[in-house]
Design brief:
The chain is of the alpha/beta class. Helix content is 33%, strand content 11%.
């Protein structure tokens, strides 16, 4: 932004040149583990006030502990300790009297950093997230420093516009040109929101009356899908017994014929088929369900089709692999977690809705 060059090192440890944010020249090495001279964004000297010294020391601890590195050749993913052993190392007791000792706080911060898992390490393979995006990290610092909610333009004008722009861009990538979306605390919540919308489209009176005036609702998901669908059925009062886990093939993909059989069984039991969850990238096998075939079945029975693309949705950016998402644009909703394959900071999840009219103006046809 400033148009002035920066010397030093970025997260990778390699020299860079370019522009920084403060509008003030910075000398020394940036995030390299060495002191930075110059001025902070506020224009106040870094060494001027206790709060700046504290923040500088916390950053220094992150750098010196290698929290921003990818592990290199010899770095460890974690310095593992048994819980009882770690309790003895970390002084986490909450006393009645506070402490004004910044040295104690910095030491505790350093210990927490040291004994935490390096999820940005090249050998961290335990979960479906990882990596460290320096631009996302910078954005997270700004977001936390400003400490605001994003529910109205009044309290978060810039953030509100940024959210709207990102959502519109992703909607277009998916093929939802008349849709809407919202960021949520995680993929489980995004999936739950989708089920709540399907329930509302079925009968808007469920908002006031709940489900007691309706026959039992039933939902369908593959046997290899994420547990959040069962969890949402519990939370929303549908019940886990009313979730059919549809058989998958050897590649872990939902079998469309088995889905249709399950829907017909639901109708025969005088239940209301509500929702089909297809998966773009299952947790264990990374399978992508046949979205076109599933969409055709959902159209036939007037069911809400949702795609849990929390992991695999990022392939929409790949020219080579985006074909595995063929048919995703036929869904009513899609959930996607940029914090997984794209490495955005946790938590970052988006629920995308194809058409608002499908919620407001198209009542579901209830079975006789």
């Amino acid at each position: 932004v400033s148009g002035k060059p920066v010397s030093g090192e970025l997260v990778s440890g390699k020299p860079i040149s370019g522009e920084f944010v403060s509008g003030k020249p910075v000398s020394g090495e940036l995030v390299s583990g060495k002191p930075v001279s110059g001025e902070l964004v506020s224009g106040k000297p870094v060494s001027g006030e206790p709060v700046y010294r504290l923040l500088e020391q916390v950053l220094q601890s992150l750098l010196e502990e290698g929290a921003l590195d990818d592990g290199g050749e010899g770095g460890r993913v974690v310095d593992w300790k048994h819980p009882e052993e770690l309790k003895k190392i970390l002084d986490l007791s909450l006393d009645n009297e506070g402490t004004g000792d910044d040295a104690f706080l910095i030491q505790l911060c350093r210990q927490v950093i040291h004994f935490s898992v390096r999820t940005g390490h090249r050998h961290f393979l335990n979960q479906l997230y990882g990596g460290l995006d320096p631009y996302g990290l910078a954005g997270a610092w700004i977001s936390e420093a400003l400490n605001t909610n994003q529910y109205t333009y009044e309290v978060a004008p810039a953030f509100t516009l940024a959210e709207h722009e990102v959502i519109q861009k992703v909607l277009n990538l998916i093929g939802f040109h008349d849709g809407d979306g919202i960021f949520s605390p995680g993929g489980s919540v995004s999936n739950m929101y989708a089920i709540a919308l399907a329930k509302y489209r079925l009968d808007p009176e469920t908002k006031r009356k709940g489900l007691s005036h309706l026959p039992p609702l039933c939902m369908f998901t593959s046997e290899d899908s994420h547990y959040s669908i069962l969890k949402a059925a519990h939370w929303l009062g549908i019940g886990t017994d009313n979730v059919t886990r549809v058989k998958t093939n050897l590649q872990g993909q939902m079998i469309p014929a088995r889905l249709e059989e399950a829907i017909q069984e639901c109708l025969a039991d005088k239940k209301i088929p509500l929702f089909v969850n297809a998966t773009a990238g299952t947790t264990v096998l990374g399978a992508f369900d046949p979205f076109e075939d599933i969409a055709t079945i959902c159209d036939k029975y007037n069911l809400w089709m949702h795609v849990d693309a929390c992991w695999g949705g990022s392939l929409i950016f790949s020219k080579k692999y985006s074909s595995v998402l063929k048919g995703i644009n036929r869904a009513n909703s899609v959930s996607w977690n940029p914090h997984k394959m794209l490495g955005a900071p946790l938590q970052c999840s988006i629920l995308l809705i194809k058409e608002m009219v499908s919620i407001n103006n198209e009542p579901h046809k209830l079975p006789p």
